[in-house]
Amino acid sequence: MTALTLSTAAVPGLRADAIVIGVAKGAASRSGGLVVAPGAEAVDKAYDGKLAGVLETLGASGAEGEVTKLPAPSGFKTPLVVAVGLGPEPEKDSSFDAEALRRAAGTAARVLNGSKKAAFALPVTDAADAGAIAEGALLGAYSFDAYKENGKDPKKGKAPLAEVALLGGKPRDRAYKAAVERALAVSEELNRARDLINTPPNDLYPEAFAAIVQAAGKEHGLKVQVLDDKALVKGGYGGILGVGGGSEAKPRLVKLSYTSSKAKKHLALVGKGITYDSGGISLKPAGHNETMKCDMSGAAAVFAAVVAVARLGLDVNVTGWLALAENMPSGSAVRPGDVLRMYSGKTVEVLNTDAEGRLVLADALWAASQEKPDAIVDVATLTGAMMLALGSRTYGIMANDDAFRTAVHEAAEEVGEPAWPMPLPEHLRKGMESPTADIANMGERMGGGLVAGLFLREFVGEGITWAHLDIAGPAFNEGGPFGYTPKGGTGTAVRTLVRLAELTAAGDLG
Fold it and tell me: What pTM does this model have?
């Protein structure tokens, strides 16, 4: 993991491989040209106040994600200046928003792979800015090379940026220290989720995932309970057993608990953990299953969030439920037309075995409901329909309470995870009526993401506030990296869940 320090060193005498500065597009009321952002004053001074002109000559415009490299000025002990675009310059008396700083830091960290140390001289007006820059740099420096020879990408031959020195902060200020420590805990756990998502399914199957959670539980003082396939049979967890029945890798339900002596609220988090999804008997067509190792992204996010909450010592009780199974076709696999008796006692007619996520979540939601938490949030790569609706970078939020849905949406936007509130139209419930069972696992094709949300709502205990996050789009980035988001597993929803825990601890959520 990339090391992180707060530094007060003078820029000219700083020893590092590069100095990262910010540049922006000038406001319309001014010249409209390139603007050097605060934090880079010493660098600009060394260029006789002409740094903006030099960068413009090199083609820089200040656009978000743009990177321009140039030699450091004479007398600097650091050889390279990396100017990263922040987007439009803020209005007068305003500062750059946290997400702009986060993305700029992430972009710089990515392009500095192979460097031992980089100094980040981006705009810092308060502790929150320092935290955003730290988080962006740590997330941007991420690389998954566990399966590469010598732990490095053979094409690039570069290890991730080893150390980030954050300039402009106040190392002895409590607020700054807390912001950076929070960024470190959240980023390290989010990167842990990315590692899990990127791990191939021959190495990450339900039992292996459960063992990783148990090890983390011991490290961070968390209580971990694992229900194996025998315990699931005894408990009547028909949904998880049905989905996992076709695989030699048997399913698991993992409960991960963090408790605080000062807690007044209890938040339950439920994650879909399909370690590989072939579609089962309703086999996915070619071209749709190559990345299905990512179908446990919801469980990875819940796991990472609970550990992050523990590391932060928040005054809230948080329980994570990981519904782990591998969905495979075989003679013992659930078939279209089969009826499963769920943990809640309800029966479900399985019309499509590739709509399996809602089946494992249903059992976990009902298990979570038995503890009467103040709220439940489930996270899942649940439907392709949500990707069609919102694209590959935004996840959908559904809830049984409009105010709670709004609060979750605001938390997501605050931490920089694009999300959008979605409805649960009652008329779509009729499409899941079954002549054989209490409910079918499929309904109308149009609005399929909303149908899935309505199905899950059936398994939330009466009177419990609940939200469902369908992260199918942004959970796995099949395109090129951008900002602090890498190619592959992204760790989407970890930061939203941590923020919800913080708000719950502060009494500002429900």
Answer: 0.96
